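Comment thread on ticket #2218

A.B. wrote:
> Attaching the input chain for the structure job we discussed in standup.
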Amino acid sequence: MARTLRQSKILDIISMNEIETQEELVAQLKAANFDVTQATISRDIKELGLIKILSSDSNRYKYALVDSGEQQASNKYLLLFKEAIISIKVVQNFVLLKTLKGMASSITSIIDKLNVDNVLGSVYGDDTIMVIFQDKNLADSGAVKFEELLSM
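C.D. wrote:
> Ran it. Output below, let me know if you need it in another format.
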């Protein structure tokens, strides 16, 4: 579980900051109260499939997720999804996903990669995600898809 939380935080950090080196990532994680070493981060980077890309903003290289044209989620992301989701509930045309504390941002990114049909968008807080559908029937179908992912 600690690895899952740490890797979720890594995804959050690289989505919000331009991280060029493993040392910068270690420093950010330590600032977020994760006790990590460079070797641990190196393994996490490999497991998450992170690559370095040239930032258009600063002309520096930064860590980023590998993004295939089809945006398919790897088994690692599905595992993270399964470990982080606490509950799934349909409310009208929304699917509310309750996650472990601090993991909603990462899980929302994974949902985007899953290409679930008919998702209009999503909004997240610290431990809650609201996935928006056109109507209740589509939300029910989306919730079934999320439940299927949990049972894989």
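A.B. wrote:
> Thanks. Noting for the ticket: The helical segments are 2-16, 22-31, 38-48, 75-84, 104-114, 136-151.
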